């Protein structure tokens, strides 16, 4: 099992990624509560018969960070410094989450990437920047070869993110993930490191 340097913090302009922390529970829960209707159609749910019981936010954060230290995932929160990016980064508000999961090494060297953003911050280029930073970190620091994003066909905002960054459409996977209470079709987008040149952050420039 690969041991990966963690925690990791990334920043480009007014957008930053930092590890999800056990102490983020109040701010994270408030953001999720504000965005219940905005996020429900895209939220992962447990299929019938799943035995994974409820757990506290602190337990989830500790588990995810433990997995990150062993190279299995990267649980980031997205923070935003505003139009001017002023003030210390530690005070920037939590505006979303980005998780790199399913990290596989060996001959595959790939991972999945998923995200959400607070509705009041949507449309500011925050998510494309966060995705670009995370993907570049996976390719150029962790040495992964492929990044994959699965998006429901109805999720127009997420489709615009992968289009802006130049992800390649690979087709549809029927009933691929359990989302909003049922198995949902997803469109698959991917990029290999050979396709991105100096990286996705450079594309945004």
UniProtKB/TrEMBL annotation:
Ranges in coiled-coil conformation: none
CC per GO annotation: cytoplasm
Pfam family, one: Acetyltransf_3
Example GO molecular function: protein-N-terminal-alanine acetyltransferase activity
UniProt cross-references to Gene3D superfamilies, sorted A to Z: 3.40.630.30
Family membership: Belongs to the acetyltransferase family. RimJ subfamily.
Domain N-acetyltransferase as annotated: residue spans: 15-194
Upper lineage: Bacteria, Bacillati, Actinomycetota, Actinomycetes, Propionibacteriales
Full protein name: N-acetyltransferase
Keywords for the protein's UniProt record, in alphabetical order: Acyltransferase, Transferase
Superkingdom in the source lineage: Bacteria
């Amino acid at each position: 099992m690969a041991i990966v340097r963690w925690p990791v913090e990334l920043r480009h302009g007014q957008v930053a990624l930092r590890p999800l922390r056990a102490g983020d529970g109040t701010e994270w829960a408030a953001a999720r509560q504000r965005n219940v209707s905005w996020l429900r159609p895209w939220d992962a749910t447990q299929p019938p018969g799943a035995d994974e019981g409820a757990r506290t936010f602190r337990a989830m954060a500790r588990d995810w960070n433990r997995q990150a230290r062993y190279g299995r995932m990267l649980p980031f929160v997205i923070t935003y410094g505003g139009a001017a990016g002023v003030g210390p980064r530690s005070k920037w508000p939590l505006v979303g989450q980005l998780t790199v999961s399913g990290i596989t090494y060996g001959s595959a060297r790939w991972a999945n990437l998923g995200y959400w953003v607070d509705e009041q911050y949507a449309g500011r280029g925050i998510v494309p920047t966060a995705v670009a930073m995370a993907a570049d970190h996976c390719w150029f620091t962790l040495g992964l070869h492929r990044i994959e994003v699965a998006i429901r066909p109805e999720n127009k905002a997420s489709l615009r993110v992968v289009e802006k960054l130049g992800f390649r459409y690979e087709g549809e996977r029927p009933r691929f993930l359990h989302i909003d209470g049922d198995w949902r079709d997803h469109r698959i987008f991917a990029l290999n490191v050979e396709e991105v040149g100096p990286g996705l952050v450079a594309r945004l420039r």
